Amino acid sequence: KKQSTGNFAAGPRLSGHMDTNILSYPFRRRLAEECFAFSIADLRTIYDRQDLLRLADAYQPATFRFGGQRFALHLITESIRRPRHLRHTGDEVTRVWLTCPACFRRIRKVYTFCLLPGSSLFADVKCHRCHGLTYQSKNSSGNFWWSNFAMPLKRLLRRRQRLLSRNSSRSRAQLEKVEQSIWLLRQRAAARKRSQPGTSPINRKRRYRDLSLIQ
Q: Measured between alpha carbons, how far is 185 from 190 in angstroms, rounded to an integer?
C-alpha cells in the first residue's frame, strides 16, 4: 500500500471548536516548518525569567506582538530535580512552559501562519495538534531524501550554530568548511529535484521536500 506523505495525511476530527485551517482538510495538512513558531526562548527576549515566573504564579498572560497583532499566552511552571552533579546549586529548578490557548496542554511551542497568501492577518497561536500541523519528518524517516539531504543538513546547521557562538581562528576556519558543505548539499538536492521527470501538479504546489524549510 502506498504511504501518503506527511502533509497530505487526513486532518484531525472536530473536537468542539472550529479550526482556522479546517477548510483545507483532508486535502492537505500544513507543515509546522511553514509556520511561525514561538517558544519560551522567544518570550525571554521580552521578559526576564523572574517576570515569567511571576506571570505564571499569578496566572496572567504574557503578551507579545507579531505582524502588527497582539497575542497572549498563559504559562505554567514545573519543579524538576537537578542532575546529581548540579545539586550543589539546589535540589530542584523551576521550568516554565507554555500552555496552548485552545486545548490548555503544556507545550514547548505555539504556531501561527498567514490566513491568506500575502495577507497580514495571522491565525490564533495554538499548538501543532490544534492547528492540525504535521512535520517534514512525518512519514519521511528512512527514505532517500530524508537520510541523504534533510538529516545531513540539520546536522550541518546545528554545527554552524555552535561555531557561530565561538570566536576563535580555528572555529572560523571550520565555519568556512561547514558553509561550503551546506552550499554543496543544497546544490545536490536541487539538481536531483530538477532531474526527476513527471512531477504531478499537486506535488509542485506543496513544499514538502524543500530544504529551505529546514533552519
A: 9
